Amino acid sequence: MAFILGSWILMSLLDANRADDLVRFVQDAATWPAGRSHDQGGLGMHPGEHSTSDAAGARVVTGYGLAAVVSHLVGHAVAGRLRRR
Q1: What 3-state DSSP class applies to 61?
Q2: What dihedral do alpha carbons 61, 64, 68, 74 form, nearest 10°?
Q3: Number of domains in the chain
Q4: pLDDT of residue 42
Q5: What is the C-alpha separation between 71 and 9, in angstroms, rounded?
């Protein structure tokens, strides 16, 4: 899960061709676990304000990055619990 989220962050920051099937698949797969955190539109922006590419990149990293970190931590916690049994 964290790998898919990290892959999408990287593809987004590198301006991958969103018409490509692989890129669309990774984006769709990353959007579901990111839930609402993937669209962090309120990061210091006012309604109607246009974002720059830097601001868009920051939103991708914070939104999907948060989901990647949480899924990674939960995965480690579950694996550790299962290993103890």
Answers
A1: helix
A2: 130
A3: 1
A4: 42
A5: 15
